[in-house]
Amino acid sequence: MRKIVLCKIIHIFENTPYDLLVLCTVFSDFEDDQDKKVETLMVPSKRQEALPLHQEAKQESGSGKKKASSKKQKTENVFVDEPLIHATTYIPLMDNADSSPVVDKREVVDLLKPDQVEGIQKSGTKKLKTETDKENAEVKFKDFLLSLKTMMFSEDEALCVVDLLKEKSGVIQDALKKSSKGELTTLIHQLQEKDKLLAAVKEDAAATKDRCKQLTQEMMTEKERSNVVITRMKDRIGTLEKEHNVFQNKIHVSYQETQQMQMKFQQVREQMEAEIAHLKQENGILRDAVSNTTNQLESKQSAELNKLRQDYARLVNELTEKTGKLQQEEVQKKNAEQAATQLKVQLQEAERRWEEVQSYIRKRTAEHEAAQQDLQSKFVAKENEVQSLHSKLTDTLVSKQQLEQRLMQLMESEQKRVNKEESLQMQVQDILEQNEALKAQIQQFHSQIAAQTSASVLAEELHKVIAEKDKQIKQTEDSLASERDHLTSKEEELKDIQNMNFLLKAEVQKLQALANEQAAAAHELEKMQQSVYVKDDKIRLLEEQLQHEISNKMEEFKILSDQNKALKSEVQKLQTLVSEQPNKDVVEQMEKCIQEKDEKLKTVEELLETGLIQVATKEEELNAIRTENSSLTKEVQDLKAKQNDQVSFASLVEELKKVIHEKDGKIKSVEELLEAELLKVANKEKTVQDLKQEIKALKEEIGNVQLEKAQQLSVTSKVQELQNLLKGKEEQMNTMKAVLEEKEKDLANTGKWLQDLQEENESLKAHVQEVAQHNLKEASSASQFEELEIVLKEKENELKRLEAMLKERESDLSSKTKLLQDVQDENKLFKSQIEQLKQQNYQQASSFPPHEELLKVISEREKEISGLWNELDSLKDAVEHQRKKNNDLREKNWEAMEALASTEKMLQDKVNKTSKERQQQVEAVELEAKEVLKKLFPKVSVPSNLSYSEWLHGFEKKAKECMAGTSGSEEIKVLEHKLKEADEMHTLLQLECEKYKSVLAETEGILQKLQRSVEQEENKWKVKVDESHKTIKQMQSSFTSSEQELERLRSENKDIENLRREREHLEMELEKAEMERSTYVTEVRELKDLLTELQKKLDDSYSEAVRQNEELNLLKAQLNETLTKLRTEQNERQKVAGDLHKAQQSLELIQSKIVKAAGDTTVIENSDVSPETESSKKETMSVSLNQTVTQLQQLLQAVNQQLTKEKEHYQVLE
Description:
Elements: H1 2-12, H2 17-32, H3 51-61, H4 65-79, H5 101-129, H6 134-150, H7 155-168, H8 172-336, H9 344-416, H10 421-451, H11 455-483, H12 490-580, H13 583-641, H14 650-707, H15 712-771, H16 777-842, H17 852-936, H18 948-963, H19 969-1064, H20 1066-1166, H21 1172-1213
C-alpha cells in the first residue's frame, strides 16, 4: 500500500514544485508527531466531494458536534499562526461527547481510512485517463494529501518519501534545510500550547454541562411547583363557592329562627323586669331604716365630741395663763440666782423635792403608758368587731350568691316543664296575685317599721308576716294542685311560652344593666386608684417638705453651735481679762456672761421646741395620710373582690365603715397627742441635761481661773504672747488676702493679654495665609481632594443606609405577606366555623322561606371576598414589581459605586502625577535660579545644604555686599522673564485644579441625582406601604364585621338553646320558690341580728365616751394638785431669793478682804525689809481665802443646777 502511494506521489508531482513543498511540510509534521499515535486532522475543502466524510464522522459523534467543531476552529485560528493548509483538531463540547478525545480520534481515523483508499484509487485511474483536466488534478492532489495525513509512517518510510521528493525537485532542498530546523521547535511549542488550550476548553465544557443540568432541573422543579399551586388554587376556589352557597341557605334559616326567638325573649324580659322592680323597692325600704338608725347614732356621737372639744379648749386656756405666770416667776428667779453661796441645807432640801417630782413624773408616765395600752386593747377589740362585721357581710353575700344559683336552677327547671305549662301558668298568675297582695302588706309593715324606733318590734312583725306568707303559700300550693287537672289547651301553652320568653328577655336586659353597673363600678375603682396615686404623690411632697425643714433646722442648730463656740471664745477672752482686772470685775463679767448664755440657751430651747412641735405635727399629718392611704387601698381591694357581688347592703356597710373610721381617727388623734407630749418631755430633758453639762463646764473654768491667780504674771505674759501671735496671724491672713487679690488681678490681666495675643495670632495667621496662598495652592488642592474623598465616603455611607432601608422595606413587605397569609388562614377557620353552624341549623332550615335582606347581605359579602382576593393578587404583583425595582436599584447603585471608585482612582493618580510633576518643576526652577544667580555672581559662595529660601536670603546679603550699589538691568530682565514663566506655570496648575474640581462637582451631581431618585422611590414606596396598610385595615375591619356576625349567630343559637332549656326547667321553678322563701326568712333573721349588734356597738361607744369624760376629770384634778404644789414651791423660792441676797453681801465682804490682802502682799513685795514669817502667814491667809471662794462658787453652781432643774420641771408641767 505504501509502495502504491509512493508511485502516486511520483506521478502526481512531476511538474508542481509547490505541491512538493506541501508534502515536505506534511512529512515534517509526521516526524514531529511520532510519539502521538492518534490524531484527527481536518482541512477545509472547497469542493462538494469532501462533505460525505464530515457527515459520517458527525453521525457517530452526535448532532451537537457541528457547533462545537466550528467554535473550536475559530479559537484555534485566533490563538495560533499556522500555514494555510494546517490540520485542525475536532473537539466535542456538548453533552453527548462523554468519551475521551483519544477514542473519538481513533474512530474518525478508522472511518476516514477506507474513504482515503478509495479516493487514491479513483485519483490514479482518473489521472491515467485524463491528464489535461487541471481541476480534477487539484482535487486528486488534495485527496492525496488527506490520505497521507491519515496514514502512519515509520522513520525509514518517511525518509524514502523525502528522498523521492528531493529527487523530483532540487529547488526545495534549500528551503527544507532552512525550515526543517526552525519550524520543528515552533511546531513543538504550538502543539504544547494547543494541548493546554484543549485542557482548559474541556474544563470549561464540563463546567457548562453541570450548569446546564442544574438549570434544567431547577426549571423542571419550578414548573412542577407552579402546576401544583394552580391545581390547589382551582380546588380552593371550587370548595369556597360550594361553601358560600351552603352558607347562604343556612344564614337565611338561622335569621328567621332568631327573629322568632327575639320575640320570645322580649316577653320574658318584661316579666323579669317587673319582679326585679318590686325587689328593689323592698331593698330601698330596708336601706332607709338602717340609714335612720345610723344618722341618730352619728348625731349623738357628734354632740359628745363637741362637748369634749370645748372642755379641751378651756383646759388649754388655763394652761396658757399658768405658763405666763410661771414665766414671770422665772424672771424673778434669774435676779435671785446670783447670791446662793450659804444655802447648802436649802439646796439639799430642793434636791429631795426634785427627786420627789421626778418620782411623780415617773408615776404619771406609767399611768399614761397604762392608758395607752388600754386604748390599744380597745382599738384591737374594735378592729375584731369590724372584722366580724365584714365576715357577716361576706356571709350575706354568699347567701345571695346561693339565691342567685337557685334562681338559675329554677330557670332550668322551667325549661324541663314544657309539657306542663298550661297548669303552671294558672298557678303563676295566682302566685303573682298573692305576691302583689303580700307586697302591699309588706309596704304597710315597712311604713309601720319606719314609724317605730325599736328593732325588736320590727323583727316580731316580720316574723308574723313570714308566718302569714307561709300559710298563703300552702293555700296556693293546694289550689295549684286542684287546678292542674283542668287546663289542657295547647293554644294557651304557646301564649304562655311567649310570655315566658318575654320575661327571659327582660331578665337578660336586667343582667346587661347589671353588667353595665359593674363596669361603672370598675370605672369608679379606677378613679379611686387614681386618687390613691394622687395622695401618694402628696405624701411624697410632704415628706420632701419635712426633709427640707429638718435640714433647715439642722442648719439653725449648726448656727447655734457656732454661736456656742463663739461664746466659749469670749469666755477665754474673759479669762485673759481676769488676769488684768481685779476680782470684782471678773466675777461681775462672768455672771453677765452666764446670764447671756442662759438667755441664749433659752432662746435655743424655744426654737428647738417650736421645731420639734412642727415636726411632730407634720409627722402626725403624714401618719394620718398614710393611714388614709392604707385604708383606701384596702377599700379598693375589697371593692375589687366584691365587684361581682354588689348587693343591697352596700350602703349599710359604707355607713358602718364611716362610723368605725371616725372612731379610729379620734382614737389615733388622742394617741398622737400623748406621743407628742412624751416626745416633748424627752427632748426637754435632753436639752436640760446638755445645759447642765455646759454650766458645769463653765463653772469648772471659773474655778480654774481663780486657782490660776497665783500664776497671773506667767499667764499674762503667755496671753500677751498668744495675742501677739494672733495679731501676727491676722496680719499674715490680711497679707495673704491681699496677695490673693493681686494674683486674681494678675490672672485677669493675663487672661486679657492672652486674648490679645490670640487676636494677634489670628491676624498673623490670616496674613500668612494671604502671603502663602500662591505657594500652598498645591497643598490646598490636596486638602480639597481629601475633603472630596470624605464627601465620597459619606455618600457611600448614605448609599449603604439606603440599601439598609430597602432591605427593611423588603422585610416589611415579607411581614405583610405573612399577615395576608394569616388573614387567609383565619378566613379558612371562619369558613369552617360557618360550616359547623350551617350543619347545626340545616335541620331547621327546611320549613322557612328565603329572605331578601339575607340574600343582599350574602351578595355583598361575596363581592367583598372577591374584592379581597383581587386586592391580594394586586398586592402580590406590587410586591414582585417592587422586588424587581429594588434589584434594578441595587444594580444601579453598584454601577455608581464602581464609577465612583474608578473616578477616585483616576483622580488620585492624576493628583499624584501632578504633585510629582510640580515638585520636579519647582526643584528644576530652583536649580535653574541657583545656577543663574551663581553665573551672575560667580564671586558669591553660599552652602548648598540650606533650603531654597535660606539660600536666597544668604545669597542676597552676599550679593549686596559684592555689588555695593551696582545693578544690572539685563539680569533683572532675565529674572522678570523667569518670574513670568513661573506665574504661567502657576496659572496652568490652577486651571488643572479647577478641572479636577469640576470633575468632582460632576460626580457629586451624579450622586445627588442618585439620592433624589432613591428618595423619590422611597416616597413612592411609602405611599404604597400606606395604601397597603389601609387595605389591611379594611380587610381587618371586614373580618371583624364577619366575626361579629358569626358571634351574633352563635349568641342567637345559644339563646335558642337557652330557651329550650328554660322550657324544660319551668316545672322546677315553683318547687324551688318555696326554698327561696325559706332563705328570705333566714335573711330577715340575720338582719335582726345585725340590728341588735349595732345597738350593742352604740352602747359600747357611749360607755367609752363616758369613760373618756371621767379620764378628763381625773386630769383636771391632777392639774389642780400640780398648781397647789407650784404655789408652795414659789413661796420657797422667795425665801431662797432672800437668802441669796444675804449670801451676795457676804461674798462682797470676802472679796474686799481678799483685795486688801492682795494689796498688803504687793506692799510687802515692794519693801524687801518684811520678815519671812509675816509673808508665810499672808500666803496661808490668801490660800484659805481662795479655798473659801472656790467653795462658794461650787455652792453657786449647785444652786444654779437646782434652779434649772426646777425650771425644766415647770416646763414639763406646762
